[in-house]
Amino acid sequence: MGAAVTDEELSAISDSLRAWQLGESSDGSHLMEAARHYAVSIGDPEFVAAVRLFIVEEQRHGANLGRFLDLAGVPRARSNWGDSLFRTIRYAIPRMETWVTPVVMVETHALIYYNALRRATRSPVLRAICGQILADEVTHIRFQCERIAILHRTRPAWLRLLTINFQKLIFAGVTLAIWAGHRKALRAGGYDLARFWRTGWRKMNRAWRAMSPERYRFAGPPLVRRPDCTVLPMKAPQPRR
């Protein structure tokens, strides 16, 4: 069957898809290193295993998109300015919150992007790949938002509000950057700038609500450092019923 995609469809999505496939294909080494340091600091070795599973799923997305590009005869990208910018932001400050927050923002836009991509083609292969990625991204966003809720658990309300407002400035920039790099594919899937902007903010506002510590019942006490510098573990949050 091959890629079962038309030349007209490829003309609209191929450049964008090459860039997005590259972004999904990271080896995750920097994230794993940050996760290990963070897990030691909070006494939660299981967090490393969870991050490893997250990376494996992201790599599967990249592999599936790569195979589609191969079937369609489209060469894979070796570099992309958007991917490089995203990595630069995350590598700038080696803190878990600096890693997690941009991921939530990009994956929120991924929900829009893969929906647009699925609408822009009749290829059953690409549509199936997009459907699987969309299902995975929902759980990825929830996982990351729960982690931010843990990170914000002991932060004063005024400081959390300041943090969210700062994130809103970053999100606006990320939204415009993604539109600049992928507008042709997004338009092919039915998203003009106004719709993309509105949808992105609506989804990100849901994510910000999911980051609120008040939405969870925590199974353990907040992170506490003893005089000997050992760290008491902090359990993962459970959603309120």
Helix proportion of residues, in percent? over 70%
Decide which structural class fits the backbone. mainly alpha
Tell me the domain tally.
1
Low-pLDDT sequence parts: 223-236
For the CA atoms, what is the radius of gyration?
19 Å
Q: What's the CATH topology name?
A: Ferritin
- Which class in CATH terms? Mainly Alpha
Written overview of the protein:
It contains 8 helices and 2 strands; from the N terminus they run ααααααααββ. The chain has 241 residues and is mostly helical. It has one domain: Up-down Bundle (Ferritin), CATH 1.20.1260. A two-stranded antiparallel sheet has the order 1-2. Helix 5 runs antiparallel to helix 6. The longest helix has 32 residues. The chain is globular and about 55 Å long. 29% of the residues are buried.
Map the helices and strands:
Elements: H1 7-23, H2 29-42, H3 46-72, H4 81-92, H5 96-119, H6 124-151, H7 157-188, H8 193-210, E1 216-218, E2 237-239
Antiparallel strand pairs: 1-2
Helix pairs in contact: 1-3, 1-7, 2-3, 3-6, 5-6, 5-7, 5-8, 7-8
List keywords for this structure.
2 strands; mainly alpha; 71% helix; 241 residues; Ferritin; two-stranded antiparallel ribbon; single chain
Give a brief outline of the structure:
It contains eight helices and two strands, in the order H-H-H-H-H-H-H-H-E-E.
